[in-house]
Amino acid sequence: MSSSAPRPSRRPRRVAVVGVSLADCGRVDDATPYALHAQAARRALADSGLDRAVVDGFASAGLGTLAPVEVAEYLGLRPTWVDSTAVGGATWEVMAAHAADAIAAGRARAVLLVYGSTARADIKAGHRTSNLSFGARGPAQFEVPYGHSLIAKYAMAARRHMHTYGTTLEQLAEVAVTARANAAANPEAMFREPITVDDVLSGPMIADPFTKLHCCIRSDGGCAVLLAAEEYVPDTAKAPVWILGTGEHVSHATMSEWEDFTVSPAAVSGRLAFERAGVRPADIDLAEIYDAFTYMTLVTLEDLGFCAKGEGGAFVEKGRTGLRGELPVNTDGGGLSACHPGMRGLFLLVEAVRQLRGEAGLRQVHKAGGALPELAVASGTGGWFCASGTVVLGRG
């Protein structure tokens, strides 16, 4: 063969989620973050049915001086592929994208993504306190003196959306009400008691326009997701859920560089994920969206293309994002009601997989005629809409 002749190309391997799990979540006063990592990892491996020897990739962030080295050592893993990307709540969707690319290219067989945090227990025990900002170094030094906290930044963005598009406080409150209604069907959710729009509006003010119930809960918890190459799927315990397309985008670090407070980076990551998956937003059966605040759900729905810009307020009214709605969103109750131990993005992938497998119990979503959902999207957000990762998953 001539040296100039093209070499046969190798088809990229398909990548599936083959194992998911939750560690103990909610109020966990007797475990360390490392223990929650280990608990989630063991459960995800058991869920997959694969031997731990298959796992040669590991991804973790947020714990240890040399994450993910310390956590991998604690779990007894010696990976040959690692990722410690840290972009807040979007971390896990971005990591899933990187892991899927590595597996597809043959650089890893199976990659374990693990997270665990005792954020609630640490505060209760006085081991940590709330902080107003992420720091005052670099470009942030020019904003920190003005004193606006992380919550205030989201609140400012919500106010801009209200001013520009006429979005109402009642519409934002509907997001919290629907999340709680979804959580009511989830026995693992931290808060399940029904709430009303009036309950949300009358709560203590945190950062105008956000009252307490506009904001995510603080919990302990952990979870894990195992991705594997297609040749391992026949050996797994359950039907695979395939990674069909991913996208990631980083837009800004300071509010002064955010060009439009009504547009999140999901507008880019979502478009890329849908294009790479070869599907449209209209094809999606359910969406798991990062919801540290009610406004995040609303604007991300717009930016993913489920409704036009400015129409998110109307879209979330009348239970349209509930379990039996037009587009079920955050079917486990989300960060507003189910759990939020910190970087919640990995929980979005766990719930999406459980729904596509038909393992969600009373909160299980069905298509018309009773069929299981076929396509789901998980979209994580980091910082104050600084970064976004979007993953499209499917059963087929």
Automatic annotation (TrEMBL):
Superkingdom: Bacteria
Residues covered by the Thiolase C-terminal domain: 247-395
InterPro entries given in the database record: Thiolase, Thiolase-like, Thiolase_C_2
CDD domains in the record: SCP-x_thiolase
Name assigned to this protein: Acetyl-CoA acetyltransferase
Organism of this sequence: Streptomyces durocortorensis
